TrEMBL record, chain A:
GO molecular function per UniProt: branched-chain amino acid transmembrane transporter activity
Record-given protein name: Urea/short chain-amides ABC transporter permease
GO cellular component, one term: plasma membrane
Entry keyword Coiled coil: no
Biological source species: Haloarcula vallismortis ATCC 29715
From TrEMBL, chain B:
One GO biological process term: amino acid transport
Organism in which the protein naturally occurs: Haloarcula vallismortis ATCC 29715
Protein name: Branched-chain amino acid ABC transporter permease protein
Spans traversing the lipid bilayer: 15-38, 59-78, 155-174, 204-228, 240-269, 276-293
Keywords assigned: Amino-acid transport, Cell membrane, Membrane, Transmembrane, Transmembrane helix, Transport
Topology within the bilayer: Multi-pass membrane protein
Amino acid sequence: MSTNSANGEADRSLPSRLRSRFEGPNTIGESRGFWVGFAVAVAALAVYPAFGDGSQLSLFMVLALLGLSLSVVWGYSGVLSFGQVVFFGIGAYTFGVVSINFATPGGITAAVVAGIVGGGLSAAILGYFMFYGGVRDVYVTIITLVSTIVMHTFMAQTAGSEWAIGEAALGGFNGMPDIPLLTLGVEGVSYQFIYNPFPMRIIGIGAFEISPFYYLVLVLLVGTYLGLRALVNSDYGRVMVAVREDEDRTEMFGYNVTRVKFVVFTLGGALAGLSGVLYAARNVYIDPTVFSLLFATLPVIWVSIGGRKSLLGAVVATLAIEYLRISMAGELALVLLGTLLLVTILVLPSGFVPWLHEQAIETRLGPGEAGEADAPDAPSEVSD
Amino acid sequence: MVNGINLALQFLDSFAFIVLAAAGLAIIFGIMGVINLAHGEFILIGAYTATLAVTQLDLPLVVAMLVGGLITGLFGVLTERVIISGAWPNYVSQRTLGRDIIEPLYDRLADSMVATFGLSLILTQGARIRFGNSINQIATPFGAISYGSFSYSTYRIVLAGVSIGLLLATYYLFTRTDFGMRARATIQDKETAQAMGVNTDRMYMLTFGIGSALAGLTGALFAPVISMQPTLGDQFLVEAFVAVVVGGPSVVLGTALSGGVLGAILATFSNLYGTFIGRIALLVAALIALRFLPEGITGFLEQVRKRRQESE
């Protein structure tokens, strides 16, 4: 792996200075080859609607944002949360409630913000109680798991007419239909992203329609990915990783471990909220299955198969697994998914993408040289 | 109307439910540091085995329930050997590849959760594929007792008795027998226990088996009163996890105490405001308990005991 910062600072060109923001020991992919590959992948995603089902892929990309939120919280800060779907669902429901009540472009834009804030705020409240209450490790996981189940029970029983917020009925198991179409902007200057395809014609491919929503999600996903890369490679990101590796030692170095976990958990909640907003906007519908135990564990599956300490892993695994899940809609899909999960965690505890990366480095450098580059899970336990 | 007897019976019911739901999970978690997210599915195995043993093989109910517990226990041993400790896959890979492929999941809490969740997906969906969305239920035995204008299922009172019996038996097993001493030595200090001649590997296997058998027995005991569907394990999870969290490090005592406290909360709130509020109250109680007793009830008791010893 190259360590750009060690080379002379003066003679570095603009691209490499720009790149160094996104590179560091906490993410994989630092070579020029990686960034070329990254650009090619983004370009491929950008032209994909011309060839395949862009509407489906846009859903997967929305879920990839949810996967990223867990990757930051769990993979980088060591807080395993089964509750990302709680914030996801709260974001989605908040978006639905606000946008149904204020179905104007300005109102819907505010609803998007409200959904993100709702996700972040609920994470902040839960996180405050847990982290400032001295709840640690696996107990955090159990509490988030239980809150998911409680949210599911709660939303499922909101069928009655007394469960309505303004114009928006929560609707119990039937969910909340008729969510207004996602439109951003204010009165007069606004753009509708859903069900507003613009026709395209490219010679050699023919006529097709592309959805602005797809590109909105693609931009958000790439932006979030790069933003999180910058975050985890910043000084704050190093503290996050230190918290993951050893809370007590980080505390001894004078960092406020509790606050780091609280901030990251809130950030993860807001990101999950954004993902929920887009999910509800894309489906024009939201129901309590987003709080179900299966949906709650899907993010954990994506992130652990992709590689929890890898943002790229979370995105790639989400897209791949969701594609697999949809395309083998038969009854064996869940069995296969379970087997995949079990085998991955047992044989490749650090996940697929870091493993592939290691293989790639080994073939490039030849065996032996790659050893110290990034040994993924070297036993970090020191007897204390 | 809140009726005194009603409330008392509901308390017994909640107590039994919580204790039985949590017992298997608490043992596996407390002793092995493994969070078994397939706990609900172990309960499922016990429930299905008992039900099928009655409906297909015409076994008497009590025998069928014991069979349910036994089969689940054996399945637990298998799970432990293949997944949790990886002993069998490693045995094969040692012969073929010359190295271990699986690192044991002991005390790797997050990994054990993910792995057992994979198992849980396979089991739930497997049960759905094999048995469909529901199977025929066995009738609730013993009928009902009535008092005044109310009546109450006798079986549910029997369950409360059984749960207390199971607690006592587990307590006896882990504190008064040679096996229990070895098991506790393994928890406290694995290396020293090994040096003293304890086969810790076998202790883990047996402990996991016992925990699984308890989960299976729970499923079998509740088989007549809950609907037989592949997701039946889920309804035990909230209570089980909350009880383990609130109970703290001492497995049996913790489960009993948290069963008592949480059972009282669950019964009171369910009686006054309905089942849903009861569950919410349970979660809030757990959050408050964790806020003030991060080590659970038994951790707190331990602290009090230490402080008193120091002051003497």
